[in-house]
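Below: protein 1.
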Amino acid sequence: MNVQLRRLERSDLDVVEAIERESYPTPWSRSMFEAELRKPSSLAIGAFTKDDELAGFAFVSRYVDAWHVMNVAVAHAYRRRGIASALLHRLFEVTASDPRRGYTLEVRVSNVGAIQLYERLGFEARGLRRGYYTDNREDALIMWRDALPTPTAS
């Protein structure tokens, strides 16, 4: 699906919240999204349709040795159209100038579709966080992707 990828603004948060609520059993609060938008070490990207409808989003935050993929969600009506992949590829592009940091995330062990997506994007399972999710104490799979090597001049 052809979408325009751009930074999210505070004015996008009503739709971000709606997508979040339909996507997760324990959604982030508005204040959590607002905090991420304010942090200089965070990046929030939205995927907008040709009609300027927000179809999905991704939040990533920079830590000492990694970019932590904090939240990725796509509205039900737009799933399985490559939007999550496009968002993550854009995050990789935007952060490529920081070759010392890899990427990490947590995902529910039962979320097979998301795990397969992350694996296609180069993430590998590196461990478990037991009882990580508060709604049902489900384990989280910790996944890691190394930073892409920087091109060398010849």
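Below: protein 2.
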Amino acid sequence: MHVGSAGLRLDREPASANGVDVLAGRGLDLRAHRSRILDRELLEGTDLTLAMAREHLREAVLSLPDTWSRAFTLKELVRRGEMIGPRAPGESIDAWLARAHSGRNRIDLLGSSPDDDVDDPIGLSRSAYANTANELSDLVDRLVDLLWPAAAEESA
């Protein structure tokens, strides 16, 4: 599995001091991280694209329209996943994503929405970064539980 990160505005910039500090408290070292700009090449061949906000998702889908069925904001995928239920035994992740994608409309990419967007703490206080880290951690945990429900049950 390969996980990557990209944004829309900064290229080759280090992570912010507050971001480094907050994630260091969670055992993650971001000191070597450098930002990169989202582009078509990064998206090609991806199995799943997760965005923090609709604006990022719009850019991904505009850059590579074929990603639409497997590109979501993190909040959107968790919300839709909780509506359709966890991945069934024997169901592939692709099939589960197809179920989560069912009924989506590209018009929903317009604008911003607190239902879909995680607030970007860039330039804000350490506590804003901590709040975003907490929100992302919760969303990722919920997504993992949806995608690998048997493992979630074993750890409960």
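Helices lie at 17-24, 40-43, 54-63, 74-84, 93-101, 126-147, 149-155.
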